[in-house]
Specification:
This protein has 10 helices and 9 strands. By secondary structure, the chain is an alpha/beta fold. The radius of gyration is 19 Å and the shape is globular. It binds adenosine monophosphate. The site of adenosine monophosphate (AMP) has 17 residues, from α2 and β5.
Length: 278
């Protein structure tokens, strides 16, 4: 596995692969890799002749009160995991490379960014859309892989790829969960053992709620409110728990169109998100 840090090195290697007409997969990450990331990587290695993984903790997607400074960084372990998965290229640009002096452009995806996490993390999806646009331009991948764990982010990226005529195929990969159902996340390592055990209530409540919502005659607003109350009673501070359109992420109170359950809840200083099909 080759490790590079500059756009020029990425372009040179990419140009060689283009010459050989090889399919190239890109897996963008912020590092502190776990089995969820590894699953995206495996999918890319399977689908493409070459796989690039980027690791960049993108400052523009963190709010001023968020965890940028303490975001976990495990470069040696990440390198080992990626080499073992058969990754061809690890691209690890720094902030100077991604946002040089004078950088002034942002990508805003309206609509789908405006709900769920949008109001709770102002500027977050602009940061994501901008950095992903840059990575897609830099790497020119045939396919790029994103986790359904960040379902709303995946919809934002699908929208921007369509709207900006990006040639890359955007591929969503199902959520990878711990044995107790908690969605794997780099942020789970912030949880102490008591809160880690408690965090498994999120998937448990979501699974039950999804089932209850599908029952004939279900009173959807009442079921949602009861689930919210259940999490709050266990000490979660809820940003939201909503039923929303699977594509537009707009909250709704009926199952008339493809819908999912979405939750963002804080346990102490750790913010957890999850989503569930209905
Ligand atoms: P991150 O490093 O947290 O920015 O995540 C990089 C990519 O991995 C994103 O597309 C995430 O959605 C995806 N990802 C993170 N955790 C999981 C998981 N538990 N299951 C599936 N994909 C995940």
């Amino acid at each position: 596995m080759k490790i590079i840090t500059t756009i020029q090195a990425l372009r040179d290697i990419r140009a060689g692969w283009a010459h050989e007409k090889q399919a190239v997969g890109l897996v963008p990450t912020m590092g502190a890799l776990h089995e969820g990331h590894a699953t995206l990587v495996r999918q890319s290695v399977k689908d493409n002749a070459k796989t690039i993984v980027s690791i960049f903790v993108n400052p523009t997607q963190f709010g001023p009160q968020e965890d940028l400074a303490r975001y976990p960084r495990t470069p040696e372990e990440d390198e080992k995991l990626l080499a073992a998965e058969g990754v061809d290229l690890l691209y690890r640009p720094d902030e100077q490379v991604m946002y040089p002096e004078g950088f002034a452009t942002g990508v805003t995806v309206k609509g789908v960014s405006d709900y769920l996490c949008g109001p709770f993390r102002p500027g977050h999806f602009n940061g994501v859309a901008t950095v992903v646009s840059k990575l897609l331009n830099q790497a020119q991948p045939t396919c790029a892989y994103f986790g359904e764990k960040d379902w709303q982010q995946l919809q934002v990226i699908r929208r921007l790829a369509r709207d900006l005529d990006v040639a890359t195929t955007i591929i969503g990969v199902p959520i990878v969960r711990e044995a107790d159902g908690l969605a794997m996340s780099s942020r789970n390592r912030y949880l102490d053992s008591e809160n880690r055990a408690k965090a498994a209530l999120i998937p448990r409540i979501m699974r039950q709620l999804a089932q209850d919502l599908r029952a004939a005659g279900a009173d959807i607003p009442t079921l949602l409110e009861a689930a919210r109350a259940g999490l709050c009673a266990e000490g979660f501070v809820l940003d939201y728990l909503e039923l929303a359109g699977a594509e537009d992420c707009t909250p709704r109170q009926d199952l008339g169109a493809p819908s999912r359950l979405f939750v963002a809840a804080r346990l102490g200083a750790t913010r957890l998100i999850d989503n569930w099909p209905v």
